[in-house]
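Translate sequence into structure tokens.
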Amino acid sequence: MESSIQAAEARTRVTSFHEQSLNVLNAMMSREWDKEEEEEEVVERKGGSMFGAIFILMNAIMGASILILPCSFGQIGIITAVIMELFVVFIGYIAHMILAGAVDRFDGANYQDLMGKVCGPTAQLLSQLGLILYFFTLSCASHITMGDQAVKICELADGLSSEEEHHWYCNRRFLIPVGSMTLIFPLIWVRNISTFSYVSVFSVFSVFYIVAAIIIDYYKLNLPLNDEILMPDVGILPIMQYLPVFTLGFQCHMTSVPLYYELHNRSVSRYTVVILVTSFLVFLCYMLAGVFGLMTFGVSVDPDILIDYSSKDGLMTVARGAISASVIGSCPIFIYLGRGAIDDTIVQIAGKFNRQLERNTEKRRVVILLVWHFLALGLAILTSSFGTVLQLVGSIAALFMLFFPGYIAWVESRDGNRGYQVLGVIFMAMGMFMFIWTIVFNLYQIATGAG
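Result follows.
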């Protein structure tokens, strides 16, 4: 009898979390409401729990980016990497508080809606363009992750090692389009994304499993600790190169706005608890994965650490399947949110030229989905560096973690708050510098053949 009650309670918690995840996804794409509808929504909205909020933020933060952390730790050293993580957690927390305060004052339902209400339509349009670029690069990264893991799974099925010559069907340029067209392409046409909100639960536990597998494999090999990996002699260039990776690793600010908007009995103090608990758990997972992955393979570790493990490693075969399933389920969500942002942008730009367009027309939906999918697929096939793509995604993440919250603080400082004005300028400068620096640096690497 007790087990039946416990099972029922567990199902209730999962269902509640599923509904909260769906509410946040819907809020991220919410349109302008009529005032009567908005008032009715405020009255009827149940609000999400703090536990659910922590889980949703962890899912928004953690993902394929955890695979590059051992490489990042190796390039700048464990101590420097931990300090950088703490720094990003600190500035990320400040940005969360800026956004939460703005939500309370302006009642913005999602990130771009908040930017519009605080900073005006031009800022809203810029945030929508940033959102489109962010989700598009995430779509490319998802395809690359899926293809890289498929190669290792194919090696296992073929009975070959990484050093042996592979059959043509084990080539990533074959596996990425096959996997994309058979597994991702059918899912992008789904109109109701409620099914994919369950991916949140699976993605978080996939990351937990990968961290545990990295630690277990290290102790199985019984490797000695190399003191050089703690604090190597590195210059500022590697630190600047990998800072966007850590920024991406803690960026969840687009999700943060609708999540706080939907939070039950929302207050900045309650949300502070959510942010601090989430940041601690994510920091712990990142540190364990980075340290033990680096100690296993040394500074030569691949930007995608799962590539370095043998295709015959059972623990990592499960990890490859888990992360592949996670990105396959997440990619349609990225495309759904990106398509909605493109549609909003087209309608908004047309309005500036006194042309009234209908939202979400079927023809425009089909064109956007086809162009988005095949462009992301093509770039994923042509791009061999998983690390370069994540650095580019991280540079865009810096805009949402630093630049836009800084702009909100700067706009709100017009009432004479000098401290808020200085904070806003610092955040805008940091976000824009990180974005421009990463783009220029990676273009230089590509042009010189170094990346």
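Note: Residues 356 and 387 are 42 Å apart (CA to CA).
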